[in-house]
Specification:
Histidine-containing Protein, Chain: A; alpha+beta; 2 domains; four-stranded antiparallel sheet
Length: about 170
């Protein structure tokens, strides 16, 4: 497993942990030294992840519930340009894209956090996809996918839906 993937997996473990996780446990799980885990945690912190180190191990602080609304939208499109346009519409109108979800016929629901809330985040996301020649998850389902988005209010959500529908990206809920 490469370094970036290990750090991603460490973060997922901490996000899903019900209690603190010791560095030695992480080291054993990933087949690396505890010092490597310490460095991984330091890099994650440098990237803005608030990880607490306690005598019992590492943990993420409990977040206060956001006052923002979370909604799910169903979209369909193909290609990088339409994907970028769809995501840009959402962030430009004040939404944050939390994740992308597809319903794979064999594996069931596949969900990946993307956390895009600005044009800068979007540019980094698109650059990463192009640099790695990665296919979007929606390519597994012919373009059909869902997004969990966070918005400040229902009016913002309705505006985003209207714009996506105007581009024929939004699947009718009716």
């Amino acid at each position: 497993m490469d370094t970036a993937k290990r750090r991603e997996e460490i973060l997922k473990l901490l996000q899903n942990a019900q209690k603190s996780v010791k560095g030695t446990e992480l080291a054993e799980q990933f087949g690396v030294s505890r010092q490597v885990i310490v460095q991984d945690i330091a890099i994650l912190r440098a990237n803005g992840i608030n990880i607490l180190a306690t005598p019992q191990g590492y943990l993420l602080p409990v977040r206060e519930e956001s006052k923002a609304l979370r909604r799910t939208i169903v979209c369909n499109h193909k290609g990088y340009d339409s994907m970028e346009e769809e995501l840009r519409i959402i962030v430009d109108l004040g939404g944050k894209i939390i994740d992308v979800i597809v319903d794979h016929p064999l594996y069931g629901e596949i969900k990946s956090p993307i956390n895009i809330e600005s044009r800068y985040d979007l540019a980094q996301f698109m650059d990463n996809i192009k640099e790695t020649n990665a296919e979007p998850l929606s390519s597994l389902t012919g373009g059909l996918h869902l997004h969990t988005i966070e918005v400040k209010d229902q009016k913002t959500f309705e505006l985003i839906k209207k714009e996506l529908k105007g581009k024929n990206y939004l699947i009718n809920e009716d």
